[in-house]
TrEMBL record:
It comes from Pseudoalteromonas denitrificans DSM 6059. It comes from the Bacteria. It holds the Pfam family Response_reg. Signal peptide: none annotated. One of its GO terms (biological process) is phosphorelay signal transduction system. This is CheY chemotaxis protein or a CheY-like REC (Receiver) domain. Transmembrane segments: none annotated. InterPro entries: CheY-like_superfamily, Sig_transdc_resp-reg_receiver, ST_Response_Regulator, TPR-like_helical_dom_sf, TPR_rpt. Residues 10-130 form the Response regulatory domain.
């Protein structure tokens, strides 16, 4: 154990029950801690952390009914940079259910105590964690300062010594190497330790490297093996789902995330990603259910933003035009209530425009032409009031709404103006291109054309799986690109005929559903019809073979 000068340390106790506040305070004071502050709720905790750099935080999970809980408080503290990596965080709770513990651990408290606990156990956990924090303090400080080169230098220095925290140093080193794009060095470390006990980070790192190398089958094997041995390890599910998503296999990504949510049903980030994957896979009923759940779970948390309600509204606008399996009227009223809540909780002119646009699109989808037109005009008028101060993301949403209304002649000038003004902003241009059926930016055009040429070359050489991989990757970047979807469908069908990959037939059908709304005037419309006939014929033939084999 290192010598720690407790008199220089500051501690914060965040606990709603006085008896536990007093117990923790008395125990901590025995160590000679220089400053011990106590608060009962998240609001006061956040306020204190803005004014003080605490070395120790005791964080109760239950901070009062209807208020932020400990997990939400910790997440906000970390996201807003109010606590450093050198701060020791001890989560304390009376509940020990799997779903609660997994959710609480998502934001990485250093240790976890279940009530009731003894003073001896509390101090043991505190000293044990502070010892590690003190030993690795320079590394944590370099991480806080985003100095990757210094982090690597310090890790190497510790690894040359007889440190008790060798695995911690290796984990941090491998993560920094990956961040710097040093994949071979990352692979060397992770491959060496991936089978060692308590080295789950090594398996994740190795799988991520394989994904960078586009060795998706290898990545899948690593993540599946990790989950087989550690079925409660949520990052394993998250990265396996990302691995499938990168290949364009949204169905497998969706089912993987479902298993993760079943394991940790309170994770907002998991459910948000699940909703997004469902939406991209045109599983709008699942997406709507998930977006509704994020609205409930995000209350009192940092995730309580206008985006949740707007995502819910967008999914409904896409969904209700396709099927009547759900009670559309009931859901529509729920959406309108959420849009009203956004204007109540986040009052500003920009959110007013966004909610009005969302209302317009939903009215239009539900064939309420009068209210749709009225809301769209109101949105346009609100945009005009901002004149030259109209944020570009609002202009993009206005263009999306016009295209939803099939008023392309009003959408196109807005989009062309955005491209002209922001053509050198690759991040924003990608957002514009991702929404369109073909990119407008020069980078988007060049990138998609290059990949299509590579995929066509694979296709002509009868390397159909390679063609599928290339097109799937670029489609994950440009999810509405019509030509890529059609080329991918063709490659998938060839792989079904040539290699008998049955899951490719399912993916081809899913992609074709996404093209159902392709307008007749689109240059690819006839090709889409031809491929639809081909897809139908292959599906019928496969069904016939399947029935014959059963009989």
């Amino acid at each position: 154990m290192l010598d720690i000068d407790f008199s220089t340390k500051k501690a914060l106790i965040i606990e709603s029950y006085k008896v536990f506040r007093d117990l923790i305070k008395n125990s901590t004071m025995k160590l000679g801690i220089g400053q011990v502050d106590c608060v009962r709720n998240s609001f006061d905790a956040l306020s204190n952390c803005k004014d003080h750099d605490y070395d120790i935080i005791y964080l109760g999970y239950d901070l009062g009914e209807g208020k932020k809980n400990g997990q939400q408080t910790l997440e906000e503290l970390r996201v807003n940079g109010l606590i450093k990596r050198t701060c020791t965080v001890i989560m304390i709770t009376a509940e020990s259910s799997q779903e609660m513990v997994l959710c609480a651990m998502e934001h990485k408290p250093d240790t976890y105590l279940t009530k009731p606990f003894t003073t001896k156990e509390l101090l043991r956990r505190l000293i044990q964690t502070m010892d590690k924090k003190a030993a690795l303090s320079e590394i944590y400080l370099a991480l806080d300062n985003a100095n990757s080169e210094l982090v690597l230098t310090l890790c190497d220095a510790h690894l040359m010594q007889d440190t008790n925290y060798r695995q911690d140093c290796l984990k941090i080193k491998s993560q920094q190497l990956f961040k710097l794009g040093e994949f071979a060095a990352t692979e060397e470390i992770c491959e060496r330790y991936t089978n060692d006990a308590n080295c789950l980070w090594a398996a994740i790192g190795l799988g991520k490297v394989y994904m960078e190398y586009r060795l998706f089958d290898k990545a899948t094997h690593v993540f599946k093996k990790l989950l087989l041995e550690n079925p409660l390890y949520i990052p394993g599910y998250e990265w396996l789902a990302k691995n499938y998503k990168m290949q364009g296999d949204f169905e497998l990504s969706k089912s993987t995330l479902e298993k993760a949510i079943e394991t940790s049903p309170r994770s907002v980030s998991l459910i948000q990603e699940y909703a997004s994957v469902c939406e991209q896979n045109t599983n709008y009923d699942n997406a709507i259910t998930a977006y509704k759940k994020t609205l409930d779970l995000s209350k009192n948390s940092i995730h309580h933003t206008p985006k949740n309600g707007l995502n819910f509204a967008r999914a409904m606008s896409d969904y209700s035009d396709l099927t009547d399996e759900l009670d559309i009227n009931k859901l529509t009223q729920q959406v309108f209530r959420e849009l009203t809540n956004i204007n109540r909780d986040f009052k500003n002119s920009e959110n007013k425009i966004l909610t009005t646009l969302a209302s317009a699109c939903l009215f239009f989808t539900n064939k309420d032409k009068h209210n749709a037109t009225k809301a769209l005009q109101e949105s346009a008028n609100l945009c005009d009031l901002l004149e030259g101060d109209l944020p570009r993301y609002i202009a993009l949403e206005l263009a999306k709404a016009y295209m939803h209304f099939q008023i392309d002649e009003k959408a196109e000038p807005i989009l062309l103006d955005l491209v002209e003004k922001h053509k050198n902003d690759d991040v924003f241009m990608l957002k514009v291109d991702q929404f369109l059926q073909a990119p407008l930016s020069q980078q988007g055009k060049a990138e998609t054309l290059t990949v299509i040429k590579i995929a066509v070359k694979h296709y002509n050489q009868k390397n159909y799986q390679d063609a599928v991989t290339e097109l799937s990757l670029i489609l994950s970047r440009y999810p509405n690109h019509v030509s890529i979807k059609l080329n991918l469908i063709e490659a998938l069908l060839k792989s079904v005929q040539h290699d008998d990959f049955q899951n490719h037939l399912t993916r081809a059908n899913q992609l074709m559903v996404q093209l159902n709304k392709l307008p007749r005037k689109n240059e690819h419309f006839q090709r889409m019809l031809d491929l639809r006939k081909k897809l139908s014929a292959i599906s019928v033939a496969k069904d016939s073979v399947s029935k014959d084999s059963v009989s």
